[in-house]
Amino acid sequence: MAFNHLPAGAHDALAPLSVKPVTHSVSMANDQLPPEAGVHPAPRTVLDRLAAGPGRAARITHTEHLPPRPGRHAPWPEKIRPEVIDAIRAAGIERPWAHQARVAEHALRGESAVVATGTASGKSLAYLAPVLSALLDGSEAPNGRGATALYLAPTKALAADQRRAVRALAEPLGKGVRPAVYDGDTPFEEREWVRQYANYALTNPDMLHRSILPAHPRWASFLRALRYVVIDECHAYRGVFGSHVAQVLRRLRRLCARYGSDPVFLLASATASEPGTAAGRLTGLPVAEVTEDASPRGELVFALWEPPLTELHGERGAPVRRTATAETADLLTDLAVQGVRTVAFVRSRRGAELVALIAQERLAAVDRSLPSRVAAYRGGYLPEERRALERSLHTGELLGLAATSALELGVDVAGLDAVLLSGYPGTRASLWQQAGRAGRTRRGALAVLIARDDPLDTYLVHHPEALFRQPVESTVLDPDNPYVLAPHLCAAAEELPLTEADLSLFGPEAMVVISQLEARKLLRRRGTAWHWTRRERAADLTDIRGGGGRPVQIVEEGTGRLLGTVDRAAAHTTVHEGAVHLHQGRSHLVRHLDLEDSVALVEQADPPYSTTARDTTTISILETSTEVPWGDARLCFGSVEVTNQVVSFLRRRLITGEVMGETKLDLPPRTLRTRAVWWTVTEDQLDDARVSPEALGGALHAAEHASIGMLPLFATCDRWDIGGVSVPLHPDTLLPTVFVYDGHPGGAGFAERAFHTAARWLGATREAIAACECATGCPSCIQSPKCGNGNDPLDKKAAIRLLTRLLSDAPTDPHGRDGSDGRDGLQDPTGLHDPNDPADTD
């Protein structure tokens, strides 16, 4: 029997607080504006008020104080146009910070550069100054169009926000700067204007992949004049998504060369490890890095908050901790009552809706005017809904917002006083990116990380050094993944026939993949070039965000009204029949899921529960790339095939999370070829660890759950990216085996990172299990609320003994590559599997 864990995350009375008036402002090019007038309580005062409720103080496990930091100025480079400098001064910015000036110097010398500094450090101005200067130079060119620039953002909201900032900053420059957004929400009648007249086009990698590059003859004048490509929030391009974007950028560079341009790439990132290396991997170019942050920083008080245990008991009698969702809703309510402008980052769309809904209900009991000042913000909303929420946040109409990470990379708004993080966001880079949304005009700010009931969150709130004393992660992506590379070679061949001279641009695996595409008759060689052979568009072969096909539309059954969409990859787990779907605070029940027509029919309802899908998984080894002995045990890395099927869903009581029942489902299985790390143990080692045959399944299963929970601390991933399977006797190894795999076709680099940090990763896993105060296992250490086997069997003590024995023989450097990458041949490089198919979180 295999045990699997798949990837994919009583009310305290309100303190009697009075509502205080607040004032609001919106930042433009960067955050070097004077502090706003009005009431802005000190972050320590705000935290003290939050801790004043019954039992609240004991929930704060650690408070970190980051003192304010002075800024350091530098002069603008001489080649920046004086009109641009005057416009920047008119915006209230007299001189640049030193890192802004350095980025501008690189840009003016024609050198690609990445600026990786803290949130609110003015990265936008670092690239806008040379870009606007170039656009002004181009506006005076005799041929009329002049220089152009392309801006890429990972979210539509960020592109729209940047357009507002550019328009405000460039207003004194007249018609020399013509910014325009070109995305899926842009009306068709406006798109032609953008192509013909805009010289600063703001878009996203998806539109570049699906619309701009395939239609490059219509963009010929824009591409011919392209001087700069700005890639904002480039740390978001990691894993399979980042690998796709890397190939999209190579296609862009190829077409630019065809039209005679060689643009400079300017990238902006949150603080990251080795940003120049990551940016070079993303663009395929040498990239200079600017990492010394010379901007001032206000005081930041960062609290770690652990919800209390309740009297309830979960699966197998384990104690249940109060949910992070309920705790976040309480804190958001209290902050809104105080008049403290707050964003609460929540890991899931459903969670964001729940936090906003609960906060609205509780605010109604305090002041009937307050519920309308709290809302949810997430992906899947219709464009007009997103724009209305962004406007309300900008104007200050909203006091509180429960948002998914769509806002982490979305709207740049000044005046926020606090940030709540409902669960660890998966990486330290995201943690600081989210925390940095508050205090963005040099005022003090409060950030609170509210732990979910899982191994990693519990570990972090009791090991603050893992957050505050460790560097942020490096960005992991693999452009050579054949499942990523294949559709982009097809798209490139359709855009312009591929020649042997082009192949070096696409990486060392390009020739191998082209041979496979020829064998599948997707590409055909004619003379010296390869041509696309099909009638359909090659750009439609893949969704670069890994959606795995057409999104599923969520339609109200009685009215036919479209409520929103959900990625096809997530449909099996989120809009199956009987699932509860939340939209704008209203609950709906899914009555029918039609996968063939990509439609989920729902009806409005108000059930007292949420739903959680459960899955089963089997795994087979295709090839072992690397194997390292740990005594008699073996640590391995290679290619695997995973078969996953959603088999049932649980109904959980709102707020408490108590399981009310389970309902079977009949959904088709799905398969995934990917990369995995796995380890085996021998019978002698089990005897040494005193793990009996009866306890073996529970020991392996518990170690698997906990190791998946801890991996995000060592690889730039979260639980949506990875999955796992544990087997007392695996047919391929003939030994007890635990697998952890990438939840993306061809792999995403996370399992490989786990292999190279295995001793530290599994050591932290053992420590997290052993340190938990429960007796037999709970969600804070070894249980997973979405385990396909209902968290049975699990054996906490046997897992500790097993990991202790395994680690006793671990080498100090388990890297040991053998030089081969072990990639298996492409089975279907165009019918790409849903990368989040086995998505599940604990």
TrEMBL record:
CDD domains on file: DEXHc_Hrq1-like, SF2_C_Hrq
UniProt KW ATP-binding keyword: yes
Chain spans, region Disordered: 807-842
Keyword annotations: ATP-binding, Helicase, Hydrolase, Nucleotide-binding
Helicase C-terminal domain span: 331-483
InterPro entries in alphabetical order: DEAD/DEAH_box_helicase_dom, Helicase_ATP-bd, Helicase_C-like, Helicase_put_actinobac, HRQ1_WHD, MZB, P-loop_NTPase
Molecular function GO labels: helicase activity
Stretches assigned to the Helicase ATP-binding domain: 104-290
Pfam families: DEAD (PF00270), Helicase_C (PF00271), MZB (PF09369), WHD_HRQ1 (PF22982)
PROSITE patterns per the UniProt record, alphabetical: HELICASE_ATP_BIND_1, HELICASE_CTER
Composition skew (Basic and acidic residues), residue ranges: 812-826
Gene3D superfamilies documented for this protein: P-loop containing nucleotide triphosphate hydrolases
Protein name: DEAD/DEAH box helicase
Organism, scientific name: Streptomyces abikoensis
